[in-house]
Design a protein that fits this description.
Layout (H helix, E strand, L loop, with lengths): L6 E6 L3 H16 L3 E2 L8 E6 L4 H20 L4 E6 H5 L14 E2 L8 H8 L25 E5 L1 E2 L10 H4 L4 E2 L2 H13 L4 E5 L23 H10 L6 E5 L8 H6 L8 E3 L7 H6 L6 H14 L4 E8 L6 H14 L3 E6 L7 H5 L6 H24 L5 E10 L2 E6 L4 E5 L8 E9 L4 E9 L5
Parallel strand pairs: 1-2, 1-3, 3-4, 4-5, 6-9, 9-10, 11-12, 12-13, 16-18
Antiparallel strand pairs: 7-8, 14-15, 14-17, 15-16, 17-18
Helix pairs in contact: 11-13
The structure holds iron/sulfur cluster.
Iron/sulfur cluster binds next to α5.
Length: 450
């Protein structure tokens, strides 16, 4: 009789960093002999990689747990594990206490213990896999395709008062530049042409091994230097990074925006446009300083598309202070914003120090004001692309069409008589909407292949 091959299923919530961590989880599990399944009903191990950034994200985990409770009643041997930001920030175990269905509950970096835990829980099914000390040394099991995420850093030292990350992921830790460059090189060999570097304050990157940078590297700033190194890799056509912290947009990092493989897009979270609110958030810049950085960025790379994150209705934010955010939004002329209505996260400084005193309908109103402004601005900005040629990396296809992101991170679709998945093509835009540009194929574009 053949031995049963155990199956795992991972559900990932939240940001790209969590997606990258799930790829590491997959590597660890496969080293223990498990294979992936999309079907929860046959999974021997179900892992939820949780997000804790907002209450709604946590509510989704509890909703999924209720479903799993039913499955577990039918198949009591099925193991349920919860990792990610939720266990990371649950210092007093209060959240854990509400999850009796979970067999395993661990912060992200503890994933290296999984082989041992699984073998202890089900010695009949799981065998111990490769042993690693540092989870960032685990090579992710990348999703197939032409794009890949590379975590260059985890944790954060900034302690924005509303944010759980410094508690859930711990203090900032940077990966060696040599490991990052090697990972990127390996990805090229698998056909990846676009890499996205991930970190909580990605441009605050400090290489533990600066000697890994080439002698001819023109930059002293470690993040700029890393970008330059990755630009030298043949085969990589696009480099993207997120999320940047404004005060780490040094002159060199701004200069690195002109490197040839840098996408024509920058994501720079501002969070608010009023200095008092920024101070209460413990963001370490003023609105004027933020706009100064934006001016420098635009001077260095005219036409760059800009994205940001904004929280509306933060503790004590008055209607007038919110208007400062509206003014800043217009002045920066962002292409896109991820706008959140503030929600209290237990364990954060804001939860202890301030009152969540902006009523919910008012938060919603402020969200709608910005949302509408965003749609007006992005439509105007997108119309400027009509008639222009855009470089598009195809990652989606339908019946007779293909789609992908331009270098400005705009969604673009065009008619195509065949699959062009993973190809870089040139498309001429002929029609602009808020979130989509329609275009016609001009030519396939070959990635840099020096
Ligand atoms: S920079 Fe602020 S918002 Fe971003 S992860 Fe760090 S503490 Fe959180």
């Amino acid at each position: 009789m053949s031995e049963k091959i155990p199956k795992y299923h991972i559900t990932t919530y939240g940001c790209q960093m969590n997606k990258s961590d799930s790829e590491r989880l997959a590597t660890i599990l496969e080293s223990c002999g498990l294979t992936a399944t999309d079907d929860l009903a046959v999974a021997d191990l179900v892992i939820m990689n949780s997000c804790s950034v907002r209450q709604s994200a946590e509510d989704r985990i509890f909703g999924q747990l209720r479903k799993l409770k039913k499955l577990k009643a039918e198949r009591p041997d099925m193991l349920v594990a919860i990792t990610g930001c939720l266990p990371g920030r649950d210092i007093d175990g209060q959240i854990r206490a509400k999850m009796p269905e979970a067999d395993l509950y661990f912060p992200t970096k503890e994933m290296v213990q999984l082989p041992r835990w699984l073998a202890e829980l089900r010695p009949d099914l799981f065998h111990t896999g490769d042993s690693v000390q540092d989870y960032l040394k685990v090579t992710p099991k990348y999703a197939p395709g032409s794009q890949a995420f590379i975590s260059i850093q985890t944790g954060c030292n900034k302690f924005c008062t509303y944010c759980v990350v410094p508690y859930s992921r711990g203090r900032e830790a940077n990966r060696p530049a040599a490991d990052i460059i090697a990972e990127a090189r390996g990805l090229v060999e698998t056909g990846v042409v676009e890499v996205t570097l991930l970190g909580q304050a990605v441009n605050a990157y400090v290489a533990p091994d600066p000697e890994s940078f080439a002698k001819g590297n023109p930059y002293q700033d470690h993040f700029a230097a890393l970008l330059w190194e990755l630009n030298q890799l043949a085969g990589i056509a696009r480099i993207h990074w997120t999320a940047a912290y404004p005060t780490h947009m040094t002159d060199e990092v701004i200069d690195a925006l002109t490197l040839p493989k840098q996408v024509n897009y920058l994501h720079l979270p501002v969070q608010a446009g009023n200095d008092e609110v920024l101070k209460r958030m413990n963001r370490r810049y003023t609105a004027a300083e933020f706009l100064e950085i934006i001016d420098k960025v635009k001077a260095k790379r005219p036409g760059i598309a800009l994205g940001t994150d904004i929280i509306v209705g933060f503790c004590g934010e008055t209607a007038e202070q919110f208007e400062d955010t509206v003014s800043l939004y217009k002045a920066a002329d962002f292409d896109i914003a991820y706008i959140a209505q503030y929600s209290v996260r237990s364990g954060t400084q804001a939860a202890e120090l301030f009152k969540d005193d902006v009523p919910r309908p008012e938060k919603k109103r402020r969200w709608q004001v910005l949302q509408q402004l965003m749609e007006e601005i992005v439509l105007r900005k997108n119309q400027a692309y009509v008639g222009q040629q855009l470089s598009v990396l195809v990652d989606e296809e339908g019946d007779g069409w293909c789609g992908g992101n331009s270098s400005e991170m705009k969604r673009v679709r065009f008619v195509s008589d065949r699959s062009r998945m993973g190809e870089l093509v040139t498309v001429k835009a002929y029609h602009a909407m808020e979130w989509l540009l329609m275009g016609e194929l001009v030519s396939p574009e070959t990635p840099d292949a020096e």
